Structures are given as structure tokens and as C-alpha cells.
């Protein structure tokens, strides 16, 4: 029972972390152009630009 | 007509005015922080990393550009720029200089759609998180956790489930509430009732240390449904984006002409009758107007379906939407935009839609029967157990179990998942589908009505041979044609190499032809009277003459080329038992020759937009389900009135927006392909409904008897959903219309091979 007191909050927190990360990646537009991202990886020369253009 | 041609053609005759489209572009942009503005341009030809680099680097070199980012999935580039540091007009120019066609996109519609999709994805993420975590606790409970642990797990589950359901269930609750408020029912009503009741019962159980809580079932249900709905939305989004990408720059404004020779840009809404306007070569007529100065030719193919260009001079009336081909014209507006030809068509379209036989979606029809049946069962279970056994708590448990086990998870997935798979399959074959009901309607089609110009034919003239004269005259005519922009001249030039002609000067006389003096001989290419012959009798196709010193020495014939696969498409449709007919606005001679070439028995010529409507209405009343395939402005009301409709991507904007399907592959084989997919999708939808209902019918007796535990509910729900999805994926089997590499334009492929 004592183990559960630590394990359950830990499991839920990890899950929440994944959820928040996903929502963040969605909000910053990382799913807006999946095809473009898969092509851009082939480009050796261009400097890495941020998705939101900053 | 590509936009670049409109922007770049110099206009002879009347002086070229300073371009003033800046305001039009700025109106499409929106603020992006201090001083900066943001605008999107469509780049329909971009497909690889080389394209991304070319476009982005071309734009980034401009001083006013803060950032440029190509979105390859949606095929547009978003540019953030500072208007103070340079003109917005340089942006499309830079994209064209990189070798890509482009036009500005209207941002308003895009944003609204994005929000709906983002909300669905966020809801799906939250529901997925909740379902996964609650399932962890549920598995421990089912494995036999003792009472104290079980209660704790139930409480934690409730803590996760309540906010998650409140958040992720909103799309369903909203839709169910909206349906109930107008006294109707849809699939979301039983879903919402099931989810809400299961949650309430689980809370009651948790508070009273009960053994069974359904938190896992309700969150998992929401998750599955949101996955299906998101896929459905994504597919439609993709098709809609592709259609928006096709949109050409329709005239949003006109060039106002002042007596002192200056011009200024006015939005099309501000054009009043009597205003004098300048219409350059290659431009579309913005409002109905009358020519006051200049001669030329106009292309009416998209307005009336007439395939040959029409010569016009002062006094002639022009309908909005026609393309001015040869020279700049001075025109006087006759009607404001709200009363112009285009707007009249829009009004006709609205009335046409009202008369369209109402189509009820299969899903809604199923829900209308299913929901009351399920709710009746639940109430019967509750009363039965309560009255017979006297245990009202057990009765309530069983009634809610009935609602959960029959909660139409698979049923609600059955239809959208098939539509999403079908839309994806069509998209890969170059066909955009507007929504799922179009597919359901296409499955019932009995007749196909084709427009001629631009649909069965390519809508562009082609050289068809020499009628009379010496064959050696053709290269001379081709040389003369090289100095004109008339469509007939372009067709002639494409058909023959040009012979050298020692002429210094070429004069184009708009509306008549072109002339040149070489070695003391006057050569003329154009209409018969212009070349010294008699007025040609109105015959089959279009003719042009070559004149030598005032005598006709050769006559050339042109026809509107039939699409290469039109005959096979018509034959396929006939073989499938569909009745094929042709409804055209063009003259009887051309209509008959095309009908004969394609073996279409039923062909009507010289139809006005209203006449097409009347024919379609008559057929609908006779119980025929007609699919209309057309492209012109004059077809738009008919496209809307038909049971289901289709347009090529070369269609007018209004025609394309009226159609249910738009094909970009340029093949008429798309018509039988769509009908085949629709028929198979219809069968899969019915199979799926039988599967889902069958599954529920098997589980129902268990639930009524009170033997359904949360474990049984969870297993039943997920298996039936997976089964339905797997069945829908069968739609991807079968031969494709186009090979994947054909989706990339041929000239782009050639370019990629070079680099």
C-alpha cells in the first residue's frame, strides 16, 4: 500500500506531462505541416528555422 | 488562364496604367505584431525540398520580408512582412520569379476551420490520456483489488474522468443539445445520454463503495468517437484546402478610368453603373458592361458554353466573367456587381438548392430508429427489474448497463470512418470530395448529364486541318500567327512550324486579324471578310483564313478538342447501366459533332442556365437521380440543382464551389471512378451498420439480464470498433485511377530529374 502512495501520483504526473507536451506541440504548430517537415530533413544547407518564424 | 499571364501581359492600344493591386493584397493580410503584417499565398506546384528552398530564399532576399515559411501539406507559403520597407506586390512577383504559380489566399475561411480541427484534436488527446490512465486502475480492480484499494482507485478514476469528460465530451453534448432543441434526434443524442448516465451512476457507486464503476467505459467511448471524428474532419480539411488552392484571383476590383488618362483601383463593390473602366488583355470582366472604345475578342466559353471566341467592338455588351483576349478595352459599367451575371447565377443557385430533394444522411436515419429503440429497452429493463425483483438499485444498474453496451460507439464510427477512407482514396486519385453526404448521394445516381465546353472538351481550340488551299500556306500562316495572342493563332502555331517571312512590321487589328507586308505582298490572317473572302457560313467549328493581296488562299479549321478519355468514360458509364446525356449552351452543329464522336444519344444545344435547371427538375420529378458534370458559370445553378455534381479543376470559381466533387487529374474517368467508390462505400456503410447493430443485439440480452460488468462492456466496445474500422479499410483495395507519381505535375518531374 505504501508503494502505491508514491507510484500512483508518479504515474499520473508522467501521463499529464505527456498530455501537456502534446498540447504544447500542437499549439506551436508542429503538426501543421507534416509533409514539409519530412522533406526539410533532407535539406543540408538551410539553417534551422523555428516553426513560428521567430 | 494562369494568374501570371494576367499580371505580366502588356496591353497594346491604351497605355498600361500603374498597377494598383496593392490595396487588394493588403486587405487580405492581417496584423502580426508591431508594424508587421502576415499574408498567405497558394503555391500549388510546390512538392519537394527544392521547391521549399527556392520559394523561401526568393522571398527572404526582399528587404520587407521578416520571415517566409512554406507549408507543404497545405501548399501555401506564409509571409510576415513590413509594409513600410517595400511593396506587398513584390511578394507574389518574387514567388513567380522562383518559377511557381501563385495567388493570395483569403485567410478568413481558413482560420475558422483550423479552430474546429484543433478543438477536436485537443479533445481527443485529453480523452486518450484519461482513458489510458483509468484503464490502469480498472485492470487492477478487475484483477481483484480488495475493497479499500478498489474504493481508492474508483475515487482517483473519478478525479481524472470528470474533468476529462466535461472537456472532451463538448463536441457531442453541443451537437446533441442543438438537435434536441429543434425537436430532432441524431447519433450524438444516445452517445451523450449514455456517457452522462454512465458517469453519474459511477459517481453514485463510488460514493457508496460499490463494486462497479464505468469511468473507463465512458472515457474510452469518447476517445474512439473522437478519433473517428478527427479523421473525418482531417480528410475534408485536406480536400477543402486543395480546392482553395485552385482558386484564381477573381476580379475583386476594377481599374477606373478618368478622362485625364489616369486610372485608379476600385473594389468591385464600389463600381456603379456609368463608371468608365479599363479592361486589359487577359483580364476577366468584373461587372456587366458595355464597350465604349477598342475592338477585340472575348472568350465566353465559361460564361455561355460557346467554344469559339467572339469578336466585339464599341457598343457590345459583356457579361461578368468573360475573358478579354486580345487588346485593352475601355468599357462602361452597365450594372452594379449585385445585379451582374455572376450574381444572377448565385441567386438562381440558391433557389435551385431549395428545390433539391432533401437527402437525409444514413447515419441520421439509423439514429432515428436506433435511439428510441435503445432507450425503450433501457426503460423496460429498469421497470422490469424494479417491479419483478423489487430491487431498484439493481434495476438502475442493469438499465445503465444496457445504455452503455448499446451506446453506439461502433455505430457512430460506422459511417464517418468509411467516408474518411473514401475521401482519402479519392484524394490520392486527384478528386476532392466536399462532404460525406455527397458520397451517399452519388451512390444512388441513375443518369449523368455532361456539359460540353470545358467538360467533355478541353475548352481550348485545336487546329483541325486545312479546308482549302495549298498546304504550303500553313507555315506562312503560322508565322503570322506567332505575332498574335488570339487563341486561334496559338493553336495554329502549335500545329505547324513557322516559315520565315521577310516582313518588317506586323499589325494586329483587334477583332479581325493580323497583317504583314513581305516582298511587296500583303499577307493577312483572320476572318474571311478581313482576308477578302465572303462571310463564312456558320458551320461546324471555327475557321480562319489566310489572305494574299486581298484574296483568300487558304482556310483552316479549328475545333474544341475532346478530352482524350471522354469516349472511354462515357462507354464505361453506359456499360454500368447509366443514362448519359449532354446539356450544352453551345450551338447545335458543334454539340451534334461532339455527341456523335462520343456516342451520346441525348444532346441538347443552346440551353440557357434556366433551361438546364428546368431539364434537371423534370428528371428529378420523374424519379431520376442525375449527376451533373459541368464547369461554366452558366452550369453553376444546374450543378447545385442536380442530385450530385462534379466539376473539373479548370472550372469557373462559382462552378467549382457549387460542385460536390472537383477533379484535378484532368480525366473524365474520374466520373465512373467516383460512382464506383460511392457504390462500394455505400455497401461498406450498410455492412458496418449491420455489424455494429448485430454486435449490440448479441450483447443486449446479457445487459438486460444484468450480467454485464465494466470488463465485458470495455471488451465489447473496443472489439466492435476495431471490426468496423478494419471493414472500412477494405475500400482501399482495387486499382487506382492515377499512379502516385502522377500527382506531381509532369514539368516538375522533369525539373527534378535535371537537378
Automatic annotation (TrEMBL), chain A:
- UniProt organism field: Kaistia soli DSM 19436
- Matching NCBIfam families, A to Z? ccoS
So where does this one cross the membrane? 6-26
**Does the keyword Transmembrane helix feature in the UniProt annotation?**
yes
- Tell me what this protein is called: Cytochrome oxidase maturation protein, cbb3-type
Extract the InterPro entries matched here: Cyt_oxidase_maturation_cbb3
Pfam families recorded for this chain? Answer: FixS (PF03597)
Does Hydrolase show up as a keyword for this record? no
Its keywords, alphabetically, are: Membrane, Transmembrane, Transmembrane helix
* Lineage of the species this protein comes from: Bacteria, Pseudomonadati, Pseudomonadota, Alphaproteobacteria, Hyphomicrobiales
Automatic annotation (TrEMBL), chain B:
- The regions listed as transmembrane in this protein's record are 120-140, 152-169, 189-207, 213-231, 366-388, 400-424, 689-705
Q: Which GO terms describe its molecular function?
A: ATP binding; ATP hydrolysis activity; copper ion binding; P-type divalent copper transporter activity
UniProt membrane topology term: Multi-pass membrane protein
Give the main localization category: membrane
Q: Where in the cell is it found?
A: Cell membrane
Q: Coiled-coil intervals in this record? A: none
Q: Which keywords appear in this protein's UniProt record, sorted alphabetically? A: ATP-binding, Cell membrane, Ion transport, Magnesium, Membrane, Metal-binding, Nucleotide-binding, Phosphoprotein, Translocase, Transmembrane, Transmembrane helix, Transport
Q: Name one GO cellular component term.
A: plasma membrane
- A Pfam family (short name) is HMA
Domain of life of the source: Bacteria
HMA domain residues are 37-103
Q: Which GO terms describe its biological process?
A: copper ion homeostasis
Protein family (similarity comment): Belongs to the cation transport ATPase (P-type) (TC 3.A.3) family. Type IB subfamily.
What protein am I looking at? Cu2+-exporting ATPase
Origin species: Kaistia soli DSM 19436
Amino acid at each position: 500500500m505504501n508503494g502505491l502512495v508514491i507510484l500512483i501520483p508518479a504515474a499520473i504526473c508522467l501521463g499529464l506531462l505527456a498530455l501537456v507536451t502534446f498540447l504544447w506541440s500542437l499549439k506551436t504548430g508542429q503538426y501543421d505541416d507534416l509533409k514539409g517537415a519530412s522533406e526539410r530533413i533532407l535539406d543540408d544547407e538551410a539553417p534551422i528555422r523555428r516553426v513560428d518564424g521567430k | 488562364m494562369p494568374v501570371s499571364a494576367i499580371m505580366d501581359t502588356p496591353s497594346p492600344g491604351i497605355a498600361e496604367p500603374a498597377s494598383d493591386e496593392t490595396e487588394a493584397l493588403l486587405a487580405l493580410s492581417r496584423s502580426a505584431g508591431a508594424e508587421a503584417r502576415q499574408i498567405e499565398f497558394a503555391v500549388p506546384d510546390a512538392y519537394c525540398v527544392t521547391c521549399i528552398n527556392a520559394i523561401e530564399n526568393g522571398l527572404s532576399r526582399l528587404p520587407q520580408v521578416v520571415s517566409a515559411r512554406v507549408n507543404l501539406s497545405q501548399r501555401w507559403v506564409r509571409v510576415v512582412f513590413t509594409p513600410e520597407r517595400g511593396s506587398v506586390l513584390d511578394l507574389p512577383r518574387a514567388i513567380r520569379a522562383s518559377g511557381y504559380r501563385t495567388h493570395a489566399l483569403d485567410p478568413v475561411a481558413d482560420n475558422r476551420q483550423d479552430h474546429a480541427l484543433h478543438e477536436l484534436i485537443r479533445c481527443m488527446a485529453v480523452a486518450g490520456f484519461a482513458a489510458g490512465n483509468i484503464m490502469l486502475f480498472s485492470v487492477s480492480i478487475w484483477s481483484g483489488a480488495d475493497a479499500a484499494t478498489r474504493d481508492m482507485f474508483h475515487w482517483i478514476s473519478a478525479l481524472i474522468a470528470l474533468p476529462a469528460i466535461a472537456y472532451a465530451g463538448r463536441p457531442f453534448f453541443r451537437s446533441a443539445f442543438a438537435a434536441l432543441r429543434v425537436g430532432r434526434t441524431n447519433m450524438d443524442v444516445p452517445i451523450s445520454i449514455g456517457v452522462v448516465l454512465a458517469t453519474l451512476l459511477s459517481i453514485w457507486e463510488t460514493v457508496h463503495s460499490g463494486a462497479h464503476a464505468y469511468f473507463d467505459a465512458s472515457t474510452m467511448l469518447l476517445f474512439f468517437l473522437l478519433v473517428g471524428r478527427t479523421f473525418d474532419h482531417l480528410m475534408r480539411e485536406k480536400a477543402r484546402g486543395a480546392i482553395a488552392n485552385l482558386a484564381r484571383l477573381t476580379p475583386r476590383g476594377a481599374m477606373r478610368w478618368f478622362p485625364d488618362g489616369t486610372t485608379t483601383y476600385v473594389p468591385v463593390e464600389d463600381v456603379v453603373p456609368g463608371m468608365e473602366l479599363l479592361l486589359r488583355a487577359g483580364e476577366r470582366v468584373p461587372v456587366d458592361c458595355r464597350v465604349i472604345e477598342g475592338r477585340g475578342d472575348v472568350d465566353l466559353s465559361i460564361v455561355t458554353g460557346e467554344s469559339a471566341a467572339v469578336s466585339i467592338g464599341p457598343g457590345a455588351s459583356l457579361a461578368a466573367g468573360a475573358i478579354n483576349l486580345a487588346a485593352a478595352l475601355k468599357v462602361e459599367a452597365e450594372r452594379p456587381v449585385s445585379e451582374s451575371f455572376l450574381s444572377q447565377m448565385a441567386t438562381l443557385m440558391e433557389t435551385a438548392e431549395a428545390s433539391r430533394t432533401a437527402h437525409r444522411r444514413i447515419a441520421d436515419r439509423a439514429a432515428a430508429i436506433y435511439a428510441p429503440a435503445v432507450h425503450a429497452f433501457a426503460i423496460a429493463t429498469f421497470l422490469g427489474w424494479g417491479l419483478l425483483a423489487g430491487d431498484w438499485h439493481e434495476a438502475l444498474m442493469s438499465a445503465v448497463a444496457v445504455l452503455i453496451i448499446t451506446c453506439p460507439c461502433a455505430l457512430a464510427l460506422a459511417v464517418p470512418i468509411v467516408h474518411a477512407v473514401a475521401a482519402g482514396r479519392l484524394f490520392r486519385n486527384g478528386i476532392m470530395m466536399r462532404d460525406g453526404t455527397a458520397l451517399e448521394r452519388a451512390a444512388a445516381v441513375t443518369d449523368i448529364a455532361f456539359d460540353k465546353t470545358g467538360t467533355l472538351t478541353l475548352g481550348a481550340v485545336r487546329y483541325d486541318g486545312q479546308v482549302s488551299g495549298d498546304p504550303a500556306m500553313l507555315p506562312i500562316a503560322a508565322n503570322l500567327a506567332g505575332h498574335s495572342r488570339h487563341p486561334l493563332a496559338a493553336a495554329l502555331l502549335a500545329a505547324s512550324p513557322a516559315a520565315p517571312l521577310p516582313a518588317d512590321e506586323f499589325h494586329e487589328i483587334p477583332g479581325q486579324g493580323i497583317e504583314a507586308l513581305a516582298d511587296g505582298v500583303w499577307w493577312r490572317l483572320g476572318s474571311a471578310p478581313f482576308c477578302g473572302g465572303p462571310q463564312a457560313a456558320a458551320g461546324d467549328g471555327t475557321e480562319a483564313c489566310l489572305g494574299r493581296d486581298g484574296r483568300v488562299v487558304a482556310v483552316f479549321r479549328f475545333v474544341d478538342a475532346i478530352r482524350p478519355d471522354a469516349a472511354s468514360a462515357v462507354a464505361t458509364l453506359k456499360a454500368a447501366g447509366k443514362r448519359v446525356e449532354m446539356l450544352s449552351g453551345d450551338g447545335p452543329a458543334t454539340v451534334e459533332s461532339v455527341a456523335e464522336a462520343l456516342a451520346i444519344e441525348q444532346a441538347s444545344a443552346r440551353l440557357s442556365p434556366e433551361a438546364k435547371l428546368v431539364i434537371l427538375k423534370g428528371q428529378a420529378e420523374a424519379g431520376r437521380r442525375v449527376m451533373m458534370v459541368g464547369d461554366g458559370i452558366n452550369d453553376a445553378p444546374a450543378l447545385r440543382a442536380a442530385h450530385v455534381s462534379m466539376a473539373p479543376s479548370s472550372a469557373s470559381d462559382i462552378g467549382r464551389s457549387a460542385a460536390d466533387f472537383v477533379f484535378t487529374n484532368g480525366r473524365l474517368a474520374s466520373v465512373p471512378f467516383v460512382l464506383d467508390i460511392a457504390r462500394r462505400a455505400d455497401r461498406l456503410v450498410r455492412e458496418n451498420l449491420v455489424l455494429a447493430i448485430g454486435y449490440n443485439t448479441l450483447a443486449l440480452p446479457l445487459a438486460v439480464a444484468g450480467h454485464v460488468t465494466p470488463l465485458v462492456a470495455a471488451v465489447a466496445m473496443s472489439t466492435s470498433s476495431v471490426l468496423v474500422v478494419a471493414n472500412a479499410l477494405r475500400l482501399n483495395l482495387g486499382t487506382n485511377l492515377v499512379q502516385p507519381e502522377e500527382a506531381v505535375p509532369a514539368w516538375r518531374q522533369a525539373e527534378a530529374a535535371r537537378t
